[in-house]
Design goal:
The complex is a heterotrimer of chains A (about 200), B (about 350) and C (about 350). Chain A is mainly alpha-helical and about 200 residues long. Chain A has helices spanning about 5-15, 30-35, 40-65, 65-70, 75-100, 105-115, 115-130, 130-160, 175-190. Chain A has one domain. The chains are: A mainly alpha (about 200), B mainly alpha (about 350), C mainly alpha (about 350). Chains B and C meet through α9 and α13 of B and α5 and α16 of C.
Chain lengths: ~200, ~350, ~350
């Protein structure tokens, strides 16, 4: 398969066919909480895409070293976390000292970098034995999956907020969870019996 | 003693029940929905999350308070992974099947949002004792939810309890998917909310997850979206609470912040801005000029106080009836005038002594 | 805490507003029951008395679940609006005739207790309950959902799935997923039109469904817009991207007749509470539903994905309403935007004037 084809297929897989959030459950907390803050959708999705892409690419390239490849899963977990920390710190340096961003932008970095969705991508690449281009596609797909998930959940949150007929005990997070559950059920229609890594 | 006991109970109730992290704050959902598919995996999840929460919160409280929040967050992830590994080894040895079915979620618990949010919102702002209580009660609240979800999913999805078959006629394997976990979380949240409404009518669990901003638009210029306020760790609340303490002197902004605030951003041409943006810019400029004026007044007040103190320390001089001192300069001038007759007097006294000495 | 709008007042069961809502919904549901009469009769004709047993059980379960669910959450049960009955009938007709007796009640329990009761009532739905119930059993128990029996001979009962006498048939949807043609003989076309083909109980007889479509077009043109747009889009995609190699027209015929697509477009898609309010919004809603139906059929895991497509398009319903699809809408929005800008400019001027005076 061509480079573009492998990237595209990995991205579509992560975003649609095995949506990481609805079918895998990765990053569901961040998706639900950020769906309640629509203005954070685009900035956070961009940062998540950035971190997942760069981290997964670095991890895949590191895994090409024989010494790293021979390590067991615990060491891989530490390496992946370490790579993510380094990528985060680099991004922090750029944002603080080069761009001179506001504290709110810096706070977004922490939420965007350290969540189950971004850290899951290197593990998925490792288990699926993805190459660098597929890893790139998977990272982009993770960002798109987050964007799609937050967008769909936020449509529901608006409807839930306007709906005065919801019984008192279901108002708030119960209705939100049920709504997200039905969305996840919908995506299962594409993926079938779900996603296991 | 009773009062302390009552406060402790209220705090535990708040952390574990009324602001239950999974059911009302919507944190730690991903592991509960994806990993807790059986009682065994739920026990694993509860144990690891509880240990991480307690250890990392205490560490944050005792050692990381002085660090900036953006340096603390990666430390939580690294520390969490280090705590995870021994648990991973332990569970792999005793429950290999469940560890295998947990997949990559066990290592992912290191970046569980439950840890970071509780550390930032509570641990770094409170004492060690309160942090310990918060960690234990939040861990207990989370564990109960996760165990309930795992148990129900195992019964409905696999027809077993703790791997012991119940010989049910029908199994619903769909419950083992993330949607099943979210479904159960929704019903448990509703049930708990109904119980809280009956037993503690003044409690508002829905306050933990606000839907106020939900009607805002996603669409906008990137700069506007980046400028939207974002405070997941309630740092703004902490600053305002600190200033509201009785007797607390309001903090003076640092000099570089004042200077930065005084700069006007020239690249924002007024004609390309919307009226709302123009209003915001004008308000910002007014605020900056007020800050500058306030600074000048404080400087003058400090100088006046200094002058007053000096004048009180020096012997009182005859003040002229014509002039009333109105400023430091005038006060200084009067002091100069006062000093002159004194030196003149001293000079006369000196001359008188010399004359007598001759 | 806010009270539900429909709790009883003055000891009366129904408020006037609720009574009016129930009457309106009842009229709409009676129309649905008229449209469903022909498919029910054809299902009984082909599959015998077992169909009526499944129907009765499913309808009674739906009504019981709605009653119990409403009582538990503290709202007034509105069984008189017949929505529960229609949910039961529609759900039952989408099941195979060989499905176990508990499958219909399971689907309808999910539909009512998870999708309807927690979000209010038939007039405040967020998802189609029938679509969600069918999606649930499809994901959990696909072996039952897609095990269609061969048409029995006259007087013979249909054997349940798993029984030794069970004889499976290949549905049109299965044939399409395997790129198998039904053959170009006229007899096959007639069989499909009359419903003499394996498939869900009530979705096979195209003549009955075409009659229902005509009834919908006359009685409820707004809903017909969405249904018609969905079917038209499906036809266009089937023509452009056929899954079989024996001709595009046969592809269109098979895609429209196979599975639950036609039935879904008639009964699940045009749910009044979920449809956009405006004509172009409904048109876009139907087109998008058709697109998603074919997407799920081509790429999805299951041979029939129409119910998942309905759920997905339900999410986007509010978005379609907000799109400025006509010139009149666009002018209206531009006028509102100009008014808002003028109002904010006045506010800025008023503040400036006040600031100068101070």
């Amino acid at each position: 398969m061509s480079i573009l084809g492998s990237m595209l297929s990995a991205a579509l897989f992560a975003c649609l066919f095995q949506n990481l959030i609805f079918s895998g459950g990765y990053g569901a907390d961040e998706a639900i909480r950020m769906a309640a803050k629509p203005k954070q959708l685009l900035p956070l999705s961009l940062f998540i895409m950035l971190f997942s892409t760069v981290a997964s690419l670095c991890c895949v390239l590191l895994d090409r070293i024989a010494a790293v490849r021979s390590l067991n899963i615990f060491w891989h977990a530490l390496i992946f976390t370490g790579v993510l920390v380094i990528v985060y710190l680099l991004a922090l340096v750029i944002v603080l000292f080069v761009v001179h961003a506001q504290p709110r932008t810096v706070r977004r970095l922490g939420i965007a970098a350290f969540n189950t969705l971004v850290l899951a991508v290197p593990f998925i690449n490792y288990r699926a034995a993805f190459g660098p281009f597929e890893a790139l596609g998977a990272g982009i797909g993770a960002g798109l999956a987050f964007l799609l998930a937050v967008l769909l959940i936020s449509f529901g949150l608006r409807a839930i907020q306007k709906n005065e007929s919801i019984p008192a005990c279901f108002r708030g997070t119960p209705a939100v969870f049920l709504y997200t559950a039905i969305l996840a059920l919908t995506f299962t229609g594409i993926t079938g019996r779900g996603f296991g890594v | 003693m009773h009062r302390e006991h009552g406060e402790l109970r209220a705090r535990v109730r708040s952390s574990a029940v009324i602001q239950n992290p999974a059911l009302f704050e919507a944190i730690g959902i991903a592991p509960a929905a994806a990993m807790a598919v059986s009682l065994k995996s739920a026990i694993m999840l509860a144990a690891v999350s509880g240990a991480e929460l307690l250890l990392i919160e205490m560490f944050a409280c005792l050692a990381l308070k002085r660090l900036k929040s953006y340096f603390r967050v990666p430390i939580y992830a690294l520390f969490g992974m280090l705590i995870n590994i021994p648990f991973f080894l332990f569970f792999e040895h005793f429950t290999p099947n469940e560890t295998n079915s947990a997949g990559i979620f066990l290592p992912l618990l290191a970046v569980n949002s439950l840890i970071a949010l509780h550390c930032e919102r509570f641990a770094v702002k409170n004492s060690a004792k309160n942090t310990c209580i918060d960690a234990l009660s939040a861990a207990a609240g989370y564990a109960v939810v996760v165990l309930a979800v795992g148990l129900v999913r195992e019964i409905l999805g696999s027809g077993t309890v703790y791997s012991v078959s119940l010989h049910l006629p029908v199994q619903l394997p769909g419950f083992l998917l993330p949607f099943g976990g979210l479904l159960l979380l929704g019903f448990f949240a509703a049930a708990l909310k109904a119980v809280i409404a009956r037993r503690y009518p003044n409690a508002h669990p829905e306050a933990a997850f606000s839907l106020e901003e939900v009607s805002q638009s996603h669409i906008g210029r990137l700069k506007t979206l980046l400028d939207a306020e974002f405070d997941p760790y309630d740092e703004g609340t902490q600053a305002s609470e600190r200033s509201k303490k009785p007797g607390a002197r309001p903090e003076r902004p640092k000099k570089h912040t004042r200077q930065k605030a005084a700069k006007i951003e020239p690249h924002l041409a007024e004609e390309t801005q919307s009226p709302t943006q123009q209003t915001k810019n004008m308000n910002r400029e007014k605020r900056e000029s007020y800050l500058l004026d306030f600074d000048e007044m404080l400087t003058e007040l400090d100088a006046y106080k200094l002058a007053q103190e000096k004048s009180e320390a020096a012997p009182p001089a005859e003040a002229s009836d014509e002039e009333t001192p109105s400023s430091a300069k005038d006060a200084g001038g009067e002091r100069a005038d006062v000093e002159k007759p004194e030196t003149a007097k001293n000079a006369e006294q000196g001359q008188a002594k010399e004359e007598s000495g001759v | 805490m806010r009270q539900d709008a429909h709790t009883p007042e003055d000891g009366r069961l129904y408020t006037p507003q609720l009574k009016a809502d129930v009457q309106t919904t009842r009229k709409y549901m009676l129309d649905n029951l008229v449209m469903l009469a022909a498919p029910v009769v054809m299902a009984w004709y082909y599959y015998g008395g077992g169909v009526l047993r499944i129907l009765l059980l499913t309808v009674l379960t739906a009504m019981l679940c709605e009653y119990v669910g409403d009582k538990l959450v503290g709202t007034v049960p509105t069984l008189r609006d017949l929505s529960a009955a229609v949910t039961g009938v529609v759900t039952a007709l989408c099941l195979p005739a060989s499905s176990p007796l508990w499958l219909g009640p399971l689907a309808v329990s999910f539909a009512i207790l998870v999708v309807k009761v927690p979000f209010g009532s038939t007039r405040s739905l967020l998802f189609s309950p029938v679509a969600a119930g069918l999606a649930f059993v499809t994901v959990c128990l696909p072996q039952y959902m897609f095990a269609y029996p061969a048409l029995p001979d006259a007087g013979e009962a249909v054997a349940a799935y798993g029984a030794s006498a069970f004889s499976s048939g290949t549905s049109l949807a299965k044939m399409l997923s395997e790129s198998t043609s039904m053959g170009s003989s006229a007899a096959n076309y007639i069989d499909v039109l009359l419903g003499s083909f394996p498939g869900p109980m009530g979705t096979g007889c195209m003549i009955a469904l075409l009659g229902a479509l005509l009834y919908l077009a006359i009685r409820r043109p707004g809903q017909f817009t969405a249904a018609g747009a969905c079917l038209a889009t499906t036809a266009v995609i089937a023509f452009l991207f056929p899954r079989i190699l024996t001709g595009r027209f046969q592809s269109v015929f098979m895609e429209l007749s196979g599975g639950m697509l036609f039935f879904t477009a008639l009964f699940l898609l045009p749910e009044e509470a979920l449809l956009p309010k405006h004509f172009y919004g409904r048109l876009l809603y139907g087109v998008t539903a058709g697109l998603f139906c074919m997407l799920f059929r081509h790429l999805g895991e299951f041979e029939e994905g129409a119910v998942f497509a309905v759920l997905l398009v339900n999410v986007l319903s509010a978005v379609f309403d907000k799109l400025p699809l006509t010139a009149r809408e666009r002018r209206k929005r531009a006028a509102v935007r100009r008014e808002k800008q003028a109002a904010s400019a006045e506010t800025v001027e008023a503040r400036e004037g006040g600031g100068t005076n101070a």
